[in-house]
Specification:
The complex is a heterodimer of chains A (71) and B (383). Chain A is mainly alpha-helical. Chain A is built from 4 helices and no strands. Chain A starts with 6 loop residues before the first helix and ends with a helix. Chain B is an alpha/beta fold. Chain B is built from 9 helices and 16 strands. Chain B has a 5-stranded mixed beta barrel with strand order 1-2-3-5-4. In chain B, strands 9-8-10-11-12 form a 5-stranded parallel sheet, with helices on both faces. Chain B has a 4-stranded antiparallel sheet with strand order 14-13-15-16, with no helix packed on it. In chain B, helix 2 packs parallel to helix 3 and helix 6 runs parallel beside helix 7. In chain B, a hairpin with a 2-residue loop joins strand 6 and strand 7. In chain B, 28% of the residues are buried. The chains are: A mainly alpha (71), B alpha/beta (383). Chains A and B meet through helix 2, helix 3 and helix 4 of A and helix 9 of B.
């Protein structure tokens, strides 16, 4: 689904219904202070990557997205 | 009256019929109720030709020519303005007419006036009956909230996270189709959509059947679409009649994909509108879809912003803690030095670490183990 996410991120991402649910989960984790310091930067990067992916999905046709996935 | 035995010219018979009609009707205006067919209007001449028919089930039991000249034509215009319906085939009307006979054109009923209230009342009654039937026959899918509001299964369907794949029911080359696609494809945010058009005729006798058929085709392919849009441009109330039909409304109310309607009329609300998500015009349907995606994108961006802020806040909190700990450590080490007999020199509350900062006549504070002394510098010897 998200060719730009790492396999681990992709696996985590796919556990959630969509980007919205996944990002909300991330917010909750941060609010509950359950993210270790050394993972903070990765979390932010991951969130930004998901946002970029959403922006792409909204602006590309399904055909283009499928083509991109296949490449 | 006994007719002569010799052959008569046709004109004599026509004249006799004319006389008989004149004798019978005496130029009276008669009120009739009938369906109108084959309506042909000539607005420039202010004429209208039509047929009045009476049916019993599918059988035609009476048919007469009708005509409106300059006297009756304004009644047609008034009818269209007040009922918002086109004076067109299939309408049941109540009219004031005069029976006319012309030797060449034969018998006709000349329209003098049309009973507008009758038609409006009939339409209102038909709509009320259709709505009542819908609620009665589909109690699990349709419930009445108030006179203008109905809650349907279709309205309760969840929407996808964003809308991309749209099944569009519209008329070919119509204003509605053009307005919808233009608004959608020229959106300010550059969102892309995949629109599959289900083009059909959406006015006239077959329209209701056509709409139901197209919805049927979409049902079979429902996994290929996020939502359905039904759009058409403006028109008279007659043009919107299919959207008041039971079959169309029932199909919409129970349809498995969210349906947005933009069937181009601001003043009236069709029954189809009440069963779906009503957005009035094709342009508004397209705007709604674009805004829906915009809101989704904004929500995502807001969440990312929140994540960034929370991460920053966490780092800042940790940095503050480290700073605090450093201060504590400094204080502890200072105390230890004072215990050993060392002193700390302050100038204006700042610790002096560089003797060159001290000038003659400076007031200094010297902190000892258990006390502070204030002194004035008399002399400085740098070694």
């Amino acid at each position: 689904m998200n060719k730009e996410l790492t396999p681990q991120e992709d696996e985590m991402y796919s556990q959630f219904e969509d980007a919205y649910a996944y990002l909300q989960h991330m917010v909750k984790q941060l609010e509950s202070d359950s993210v270790p310091l050394n993972e903070l930067s990765d979390k932010v990067k991951e969130a930004r990557k998901i946002a970029e992916q959403c922006e792409k999905e909204l602006r590309a046709t399904d055909k283009a997205l499928k083509k991109g996935d296949a490449e | 009256m006994k007719m002569p035995n010799k052959p008569l010219p046709l004109s004599a018979i026509a004249e006799a019929i004319n006389d008989a009609l004149h004798w019978y009707f005496d130029g009276q205006i008669i009120k009739i109720e009938a369906e109108i067919m084959d309506v042909k209007k000539y607005p420039h001449k202010r004429w209208c030709f039509l047929k009045f028919v009476e049916k019993q089930g599918p059988n035609l039991i009476a048919e007469m020519k009708g005509v409106a000249w300059n006297v009756g034509y304004p009644a047609i215009l008034k009818f269209e303005e007040e009922t918002k319906q086109t004076f067109a085939d299939g309408l049941q009307v109540v009219c004031d007419v005069m029976v006319k006979h012309h030797p060449k054109f034969g018998l006709s009923l000349e329209i003098i006036n049309i009973d507008v209230a009758h038609t409006i009342g009939k339409v209102v009654l038909e709509r009320a009956q259709t709505l009542a039937d819908l609620v009665k026959n589909l109690p699990n899918d349709i419930s009445k909230v108030d006179e203008q509001t109905y809650r349907t299964t279709n309205q309760q369907l969840p929407y996808p996270k964003y809308i991309k794949r749209i099944a569009l029911i519209t008329a070919a080359n119509s204003d509605g189709q053009r307005d919808f696609l233009q608004e959608l494809n020229q959106n300010a945010y550059g969102y892309a959509f995949e629109v599959t058009e289900f083009v059909t005729i959406i006015q006239g006798d077959q329209a209701a059947k056509n709409i139901v058929n197209e919805l049927g085709k979409i049902t079979v392919r429902k996994d290929e679409f996020d939502i359905v849009a039904i759009v058409r441009g403006g028109g008279s109330a007659t043009d919107f009649k299919p959207f008041d039909m039971y079959d169309v409304a029932a199909k919409i109310a129970t349809f498995p994909l969210p349906i947005l309607t933009g069937i181009g009329h601001d003043r009236n609300v069709s029954i189809a509108d009440m069963m779906a998500t009503m957005l009035k015009t094709p342009t508004k349907v397209a705007s709604y879809i674009v805004n829906y995606n915009f809101e989704y994108e904004q929500t995502i961006l807001n969440l990312v912003e929140r994540i960034e802020l929370l991460a920053e806040k966490k780092i800042q909190t940790l940095q503050d803690k480290i700073l605090y700990l450093k201060r504590i450590i400094n204080t502890i080490s200072l105390d230890k030095n004072l215990q050993r007999g060392f002193a700390v020199v302050y100038k204006e509350d700042q610790i002096i670490t560089e003797p060159t900062e001290i000038k003659k006549k400076d007031e200094l504070t010297i902190q000892l183990k258990q006390s502070k002394i204030t002194v004035t510098v008399k002399n400085i010897i740098h070694e």
